[in-house]
Amino acid sequence: MKKLIVMDHPLVKHKMGYLKDERTETKQFRELVNEISMMMAYEATKDMMLKEVDIKTPLQDTVVQQRDYKNPVIVPILRAGLGMVDGMLQVIPTAKVGHIGLYRDEETLEPVEYYCKLPVDISERELIVVDPMLATGGSAKAAIQFLKDRNVSRIKLVCILGCPEGVEAIHEAHPDVDVYLAQMDPKLNDHGYILPGLGDAGDRLFGTK
Ligand code: URA
């Protein structure tokens, strides 16, 4: 069941190089996240179910294929996940967008949900949870659990840069959730940052550093 898909495309590799480069400024960083997210949306929807539909072309009757289920829901984990939404929507323009925000309780160290707004029929849709970095996996693991608590059963996790520790954490807690990465880096440092990584994705996206 545990599935990890790491993108293997020269354009993704090329864009990842610029994304990681410390000289890349906020505007270009944002554009790169957008472009990589588009390519990841393409990859993450490859198994989308289709049904046959009868239509007429201007010349004759024919059968075409169309999506079989309700639109998926893109769920960015606040705040860095927001940077991936536009790119995903360019490929899946009819998708809904939900939001989830978590913080870590300083005493218990447990993730606490501080914001969650989702479509009402969420349990009938596939969810694509997005967050650029899969580091310790703590936030994604908790966000996925909070979503499962709302009766969602079909969830994918799409992150741009990951590391083995993060993938392992998700696979252990949620073996049913397919993990998509644009690239995998070798390790985490003692502060939970991916190495070589790209620094703080939220700060680089929003120019807060
Ligand atoms: N979050 C980030 O923004 N960067 C990391 O390297 C790890 C977590």
From TrEMBL:
Allosterically activated by GTP. 5-phospho-alpha-D-ribose 1-diphosphate binds at residues 79, 104, 131-139, 200. The keyword Glycosyltransferase applies. CDD domains: PRTases_typeI. Pathway: Pyrimidine metabolism; UMP biosynthesis via salvage pathway; UMP from uracil: step 1/1. Keywords: Allosteric enzyme, Glycosyltransferase, GTP-binding, Magnesium, Nucleotide-binding, Transferase. Uracil binds at residues 194, 199-201. It catalyses: UMP + diphosphate = 5-phospho-alpha-D-ribose 1-diphosphate + uracil. One of its GO terms (molecular function) is uracil phosphoribosyltransferase activity. Its EC number is 2.4.2.9. InterPro entries: PRTase-like, PRTase_dom, Upp_B, UPRT, UPRTase/APRTase. GO terms for biological process: UMP salvage; uracil salvage. Binds 1 Mg(2+) ion per subunit. The magnesium is bound as Mg-PRPP. Pfam families: UPRTase. Its cofactor is Mg(2+). One of its GO terms (cellular component) is cytoplasm. Residues 6-208 form the Phosphoribosyltransferase domain. Belongs to the UPRTase family. Catalyzes the conversion of uracil and 5-phospho-alpha-D-ribose 1-diphosphate (PRPP) to UMP and diphosphate. HAMAP family: Upp_B. This is Uracil phosphoribosyltransferase. The gene is upp.
